[in-house]
Amino acid sequence: MTGVTTSKRRRQRSDRWVPITVAITLAAAAAIATKTPSVALSNPDDLVVRQPSPPLALARPHIAYQVGGHGDARVSYITGSGELAVATVTLPWSLDIEMSSPMRPASVTATTLGGGALTCRLEVDGAEQDARESEPGAGVVLCSVVSA
């Protein structure tokens, strides 16, 4: 019987430690929770619900083609819809167009029929993007921009 009694006593002692351990843990958690400073917002405006910004609208770029020189020339250029147009014109020549959508290439090429010197200039929204001069006698000039 002594073996059974000793075993019972050990179990009773170990059973007492469980509630004591739980009580100490809860007391420590409560002490930490009450001693820890609370978190405050530094700016109450951060909680204000605002209307979302309107989506970013990409404007259609305005393109200005210019070709300078003397006499007649054959001009090739990209239209506002992105197609290639070819025309025989008297120099100096210029054309203003609006692209049908943003991020399109723009280009103008001129070839003189008499072989004289040429200049070209390409502007996007009023800002020069490319300007070139041909060598005398070469009679060919190209101005372009990858994305207007």
From TrEMBL:
Q: Which family does it belong to?
A: Belongs to the MmpS family.
Q: Where in the cell is it found?
A: Cell membrane
Any one GO CC term of the record: plasma membrane
Naturally occurring in which organism (per UniProt): Mycolicibacter kumamotonensis
Superkingdom of source:
Bacteria
Name this polypeptide is given: MmpS family membrane protein
Q: Which UniProt keywords apply?
A: Cell membrane, Membrane, Transmembrane, Transmembrane helix
Chief site of localization: membrane
Q: Which Gene3D superfamilies match?
A: MmpS1-5, C-terminal soluble domain (2.60.40.2880)
Q: Answer yes or no on keyword Transmembrane helix.
A: yes
| Ranges annotated as spanning the membrane | none
